[in-house]
Structure formats: structure tokens, C-alpha cells
Design goal:
By secondary structure, the chain is mostly helical. Helices cover about 60% and strands about 5% of the residues. About 50% of the residues are buried.
Amino acid sequence: MRIMQVAPARSRVIRLTCDRLIFEDDLSTCASYDDGDANDSGDYRQPRRPHWENKVQFVLACIGYSVGLGNVWRFPYLCYKSGGGVFLVPYFLILVVCGVPLLYMELSIGQFTRRGPIGALGQVCPLLKGAGLSSVVISFLMSTYHNVIIAYAIYYFFAAFRADQPWSRCDNSWNSPRCWLPSYGLIDNRTRPNSTRTPSEDFFDQKVLQISSGIEEPGILRWELVACLITAWIIVYFSIWKSIKSSARVRYITATLPFLLIIVFLTRSLTLEGAAKGLQFFFHPRWELLGDAKVWINAAAQVFNSVGIAFGSMICFASYNRFHNTVLVDTIAVSLINAFSSLIVGIFSFATIGNIALEQNMSVEDVLTDGPGLVFVIYPQALGKMPASQFWAVLFFFMLVCLSLNSQFAVVEVVVTSIQDGFPNWMKRHLLCHEVLVLLICVISFLFGLPNITQGGIYFFQLIDHYAASMSIMFLAFFEVIAISWLYGVRRLCNNVKEMTGHLPSMYFRFCWFLAAPLLIMAVWVFSLIDYEPPTYHNGDYTYPWWAEAIGWGIASLSLICIPAFAVYVFVRADGVTFAERLKNSIKPHFEACKVCGQEYCMEPMHNLEEDILKEPQTDENTSIQLNSHYLLKPQM
């Protein structure tokens, strides 16, 4: 038994009954480690990782990401494509079987490893570390085109301040000869003729986009949208440039105010004439469609996009939690609020669509459109007919900006966190500080986003959204579940949760992690490939050429190729002579369970630790530790 002094500046320690040492103050809160080797995959030391100031900030970050533009845009459209109310059945079923358990899994892994998606999956299963890299690639691709939606919303926000809404009349310079408004005095003239366009369609296509005939004609940059895109990136940068310290404060507004505005719009939409027509479509199920694979595919895509599964954002957010945070409470809160928000937004959307369908003497199906047109064509059309339309339009597009910003913060923070985790020493030498890294990522993402705001940019936008956010995510989610639930093991994951919270996950979560979720994801993924349909624009009016589809698959492969490529790389570098030895070592986690108490954190021989301790300055005679175990627990990452 030896008594040694430890510098209190590094951490305080307490003695446990198993004679291990666990660090009460995480070393991950240190600014940086001059003696850390960033190239050593076994080195647990990493730059300072700040904590959320309180649980509210973390929950708001998760809710702000999950309750975003997808609820206003994708949910109503996918519900329409899937036959209305019957869509809610697979949606809530997949949410219960996949959404909630996988959210619990991601939050647990992120909080336990204290790393972003690449570092977290690399720690638990090095062979499938590429799944973490894939999620970062997808997040980067999303950041390049998702901010374009914010640019559109900013454009509309400022246009809404005009006394006469520019999307409500047919006598503007940009209106086409086919522009049509219903004559409310005559029922016969309220049926929309074929080949006509509403003022809101003309405004979006002819004024905002100045749209070309297809992706074959990219045209020139829309400089008004370039200015809006620059504004959007400036907002994003100054919201996250201080990491969670700045973004958490911004979310107090961007994640709470939209909920109030959604309730206001819900109340207003239910009073519109024809709202019942839209709600009947939304809640009336066509049970025969449950046998259609596309309904299940659309439901799974919406669950994964709205909850944020496999995008890396939830792992990133949880990595800033304190080690003993109760993950289950956060999971239930985020899941319930997300599901409730989707339902509320669906009611609001279909009530509004029902009003338009009644006024134009059309069916609900004929009113709906795909892509961002639902947000920037249908909603402005309804807002333009409301009393005090200027007031409602300003509120709506401000809400849209807030919802979009929450999602954008998340996808950019995933990229930033992953680079910080992977290259801490390189960052310190070349980028000097966190703010420079964020600025660099924002500038690069802005440049990659410019093709989306050319005259043909909306076609490219639809293409990248289809392949990056829909086709790839199921493939990625499957391998993430395999890495954590099968190769790392449900038993180990449960032990991790118990070490953090003091309670083992229920049998329901264990069953979903090990069997139900992987099988359901695999089934949906296979059916999505069998029932593959090429992307189109404007409800099939425009079909992409073959080379555009090839570009789309190339975009999808940017993320998908990371998984097999990294697996081969890790396998080749793994220790061992035979195939079995290399495979065993390549799936072995970077930490082992304590032989005394069974907790799952990495250990190191005592003599190595003593050498590290003796290097520290002896400044506090009252701080000591007792070393009488063969191994010592490394500080939580």
C-alpha cells in the first residue's frame, strides 16, 4: 500500500469499496492535454468537453432538433402519399419499436463514451467505426442544403412585411399568363382550371427561384438568395461558435417560441372554412394500404428523420451530459414531445389544406405538393386569405426560421464535435481555437450549398434530399444497431446504463435493441430497395435524367462507402495472425470491465498510473489516494 499526492487542479478522487478509483470531476472538462497523443486510439484523454448547464438545455437541444422542419414539411406530405390516416398506424408502431429504443441507445452511448458519433462507435466497436463517420458525412451533406430552406424562409419573412402579400395577387410583374385566382362570388369559377397556377406558385417559381426547365439548365445564381444564405450562415455561426455555451442560450428562444406559434396556428386553422374536409382525410384510415410496403417505408423514414436516429446529433448532444444523467427520462420526454408535435402540426397542416381544397373546389390530394413547395406554396396561399394576413405571415415564417435553425445547429455541431474528437492536437496547432473551426465548416458548407440556389438549384435540392436523407439512413441505422447491440453487446450496454444511472434498462428495451429494431430496420431497408422509385419534382411533373440519378447514387455512396472501407482498414491493422484473431481484436471495445466490480470502463496497470501521478506537481498535502488494487479505472471520457 502506498500513499501518494495528487494535484487537485486535475481532479478529486474518492475511494470505492472495490478499492478502485473513480474521478468525481471529469478530466474531460480540462481545456486541453499537452501530453495527449491524438494519434493513439487507446488514449482516453481529449480536449475539454463542457457540460450543459442544466437538463433543460439538453432536452431543448434534442427537442429542437427532432421537432423541426420535417414536422411541418415531410410529415404532411408523407402522410398524404401514404393514404392519410393509415400512415399514423405504422408511424407510431415504428416509433415505439425503433424510435424510442434507438434514441435511448444513442443517448446512452454518447453520454457514456463522452464522444461524438465517430469516437463513440470507434470505442465500442472499432470494426464499424465507419458507421459513425457515415453519420457525420450525412450531417455535413444536410448542412449544405438544409440552410437553403432557412434562406427561403428569411426571404419570405422580409417579403411578408409588405402590406399587400406578394403571393396573393396575379397582377405582379413576375406572374405568368396562367396565374389564376378563384372568383368567390361564383361557385363555378372556384374550380381551378387545368394548366393554371396560383399566385403563390408563381411567386415561388418565377420570383424566388426563377426556376429553369430542369437540372440540365442550372442557370445563374440567385443573388437575393445568396444574400439570404449568407445571413442564415451568419446566424448559425454566431449561435454555435462558443459550442453549447452559445447554442444552448439561443435555443431558449428557437426551441420554445415555435411551440407557442404552432398552438396559435392550430387554433386559427381549426376555425377556417373547410378545415373538417382536410381533417377527415388526415384521420380517416384506408386500412387496405397497410399491405403496401411504401406506407411502412415512408413511416420509417419520417421516424428516423424526426427523432434524429443515425444522424449522429443525439450522440453528439449526449456527449456533453454529466456522466450520471438519467438518460431514460430524457428519452421519454423527447419522444413524447416529438410525437405530439407531429400530430399537432399534422392537424394544423391538413386543416389549412382542407380550407384551400374547399375554396378551389378540389380534392385534398390535388392540393398537396412535394418538396419545399408545401411550405412555400400551400401555406402562403392560405395565409394570404386570412384577416390580418401580414401579421400571420410574419409569425409563420419567423416560426419556420426558428424550427429550421434548431435542426441546422444540430447537424453542424455533429461535424464540429467529430473533428474536435478526432484531431485535437491538429486543431490546437493549426486552428488555434474552436471558433476558427466552426467558421471554417460554415464557409465550406456555404460554398457547397451554392448549387442549390441557382435557377436550377431546386432540382438539385430535391435530388440530394432524396438520396442523402432517405436512401442512406436505413443502411446506416442498421449497421449502427449491429455495432452496438450485437458486436458490443446488449449486456455491456445495459451495464453502462446501470453504471451511469444505477438502473438496468427494462426487458422491453433489451428485446428491441437485440431483435425487434434490427429486424424491422432490415425489412424496411430491403423493401425500400425492392420498391425503389427514382426521384421526381412537383408530383412527377419533372423526371430526372439518368445521369442525375447517377449523381444521386454517388452522393448516397459518399456516406455508405465509409462503413466497408473503415471495416477493411481496421481489420487489416488489427493484431493477430489468423482471420479469426484479427476479427476478434477488431470488434473488441477499447475498454474492459473492472474485474472487481464489473463496471465497463477501461483499465490500465497500476505502475503506469503511478508514473503519470508522480509527474504531477505536488501542491496539496491534504489530497491523497490509496492504491491497493491491481488496476485503476481511467477517468470517464
